[in-house]
Amino acid sequence: MTSDPAIRELLRLDAHHVWHPYGPMPATVAPLLVEEASGVRLRLADGRQLIDGMSSWWAAIHGYRHPVLDAALAEQAGRMSHVMFGGLTHEPAIRLAKALVELTPDGLEHVFLCDSGSVSVEVALKMCLQYWRSTGRPGKTRMLTWRGGYHGDTFHPMSVCDPEGGMHSLWRGVLPEQVFVQAPPPGFDAPLDESYADVLARTVEEHADELAAVVVEPVVQGAGGMRFHNPGYLRLLREITRANDVLLVFDEIATGFGRTGAFFAAEHAGVTPDVLCVGKALTGGYLTMAATLCTTEVAEGISRGEVPVLAHGPTFMGNPLASAVANASIGLLADGTWRDDVRRIERTLREGLAPAADVEGVVDVRVLGGIGVVQLDHAVDMAAATEALTSRGVWLRPFRDLIYTMPPYIMSDADLAVVAEAMVAAAEVS
């Protein structure tokens, strides 16, 4: 506990008034008070510095206080911080939509800008439901997904999260009941499991008349368990959904903008979904913003309906500040050097996390692109793990049985080695 009375008072107010994510009210564990962030480091109010191995929940891929992003934000603020998007438009949003169309898989031509990743999934599901209603098949109202997924905390996205191991089992009986199949067999490089492929095909065929869409996280299941799977299952889903008149939605909120080693994870499979969700790293972690893209077929189908508009319109849709920073963030990725950085991160994490395989209680160590995971055979001891991490100058946020990192792409090999060492230490005390 700090001796500084000002810091103690701030933390007292925080405990009394501020409800933090996935925490009780009042809080039982005091959060760390951050005063400043620069590069890959967080400076705490007590003077300590921590290497941020989380990229602020996977978003700050360029680190903090990047001069290009700072300049874009300041320049746009000098012109216009916000203007409603209904009936009005502006250059930053137009340029952002054009960039997203050019960067995402071919065929995704239309962009709906929204507030957050969860909202982008809400919009995606609404697009699919409204498409079928508008094209004369209102009975197609259910979604199919595989277990182990996570798509956000608002209501309809919660319904396509894992119904057992996910955080949203509390709402069973309140949420729409969707169709679930088992999670895809693990391993990015593992061969396709033909029996699992048959299960996918049979389940989609069986429910085709009531399915609006299949919704999955491509290649990496994020908050549901940090699992990696063969991209071939995405190609299979594309074939199955087309054959059965079902839409396909890829949630790339966590995987987009280079995290898996491809700009978008769909590239590993070489397929285009009907609807694509992006968020998190879209603005380089500066402001909340997301987007839902769709094909012309989906957009025109909705426009032919009794209600010929997409029934959604966030107040801060297309926010100019967020759009300008997103354009600048995408610009930083334009020269392709991020690919070398992500390969370097993957190589360094593989080397640094290898000793974790010999730690008692560790069942798997896996790395893909800019993602490193140590999985235990039991729940992480959060207090002990956090102490092991922070005492070594590292900030991570383990959950369930996982100690993992998604570092900023600018992180040096030396800092990556520190993160990896701290993860091994956290596994040893958990």
In words, what does this structure look like?
The protein is of the alpha/beta class and 430 residues long. The protein folds into two domains: 32-65 and 337-429, Aspartate Aminotransferase, domain 1 (Alpha-Beta Complex), CATH 3.90.1150.10; 71-333, Aspartate Aminotransferase, domain 2, CATH 3.40.640.10. It has 14 helices and 16 strands. The chain has helices at residues 5-17, 55-58, 67-77, 91-103, 117-134, 155-159, 194-207, 232-243, 266-269, 296-303, 320-333, 337-353, 382-390, 413-429, and strands at 34-38, 41-44, 49-52, 108-114, 142-146, 179-181, 211-216, 220-221, 227-228, 247-251, 275-278, 290-295, 362-368, 371-376, 394-395, 402-405. The strands form four sheets. It has a seven-stranded mixed β-sheet, with helices on both faces. A hairpin with a 2-residue loop joins strand 1 and strand 2. Helix 4 (91-103) packs parallel to helix 11, helix 7 packs parallel to helix 8 (232-243) and helix 13 packs antiparallel against helix 14. The model has no long low-confidence stretch (mean pLDDT 96). Pfam families: Aminotran_3. Its cofactor is pyridoxal 5'-phosphate. Its EC number is 2.6.1.62. InterPro entries: Aminotrans_3, Aminotrans_3_PPA_site, BioA, PyrdxlP-dep_Trfase, PyrdxlP-dep_Trfase_major, PyrdxlP-dep_Trfase_small. Pyridoxal 5'-phosphate binds at residues 117-118, 251, 314-315.
Can you give keywords for this protein?
single chain; 430 residues; alpha/beta; Aspartate Aminotransferase, domain 1; Aspartate Aminotransferase, domain 2; 2 domains; seven-stranded mixed β-sheet; four-stranded mixed β-sheet; 14 helices; 16 strands; globular
